[in-house]
Amino acid sequence: MRKLLRRGAVFAALTSAIVLAAPVAAQAAQPNQLCRTNSPAILYTSPDSGIYVPQGALVRILDYRGALHYLARYDSTVGQLERIRIIQESCYYQ
User: Which of 50, 55, 60 shows the shortest CA–CA distance to 39?
Assistant: First the structure.
């Protein structure tokens, strides 16, 4: 019985160490930050039109637009941009 309890304690310690060592997901971009795009994207100015944003371009995040989009500005144009197109780690305040 003690051997079983010891194994359980070791397993619990290893599990908690793995959970603590897991990488933390990148935070979402914040309003007024500049962020780079990770791939070419469309900045949607209406549901069926927009402008092309190249990979690596700087866009300014203006606001959140639900779980999948940001309201963003690129080259003086404001529209919706998919969140997956933003490199979250690249975002900074200017």
Answer: 55
Q: What is the pTM of this model?
A: 0.70
The 10 Å Cβ neighbour count of residue 86 is 24
In this model, does residue 23 exceed pLDDT 80?
no
What are 40-81's pLDDT values in tens digits?
A: 999 999 999 999 999 999 999 999 998 999 999 999 999 999
73 phi, psi to nearest 5 deg: -125, 135
Q: Spell out the residues 6+ positions from residue 58 whose beta carbon is closer than 8 angstroms to its own.
A: 34, 35, 36, 74
Pairing of strands 58-65, 69-74: antiparallel
* φ, ψ for residue 85, nearest 5 deg: -85, -5
Interatomic CA distance for residues 49 and 14, integer angstroms: 52
Q: Contact 62/46 with Cβ under 8 angstroms?
A: no
Question: 18 pairs with which residues across the strands?
Answer: none
Residues for the chain: how many in total? 94
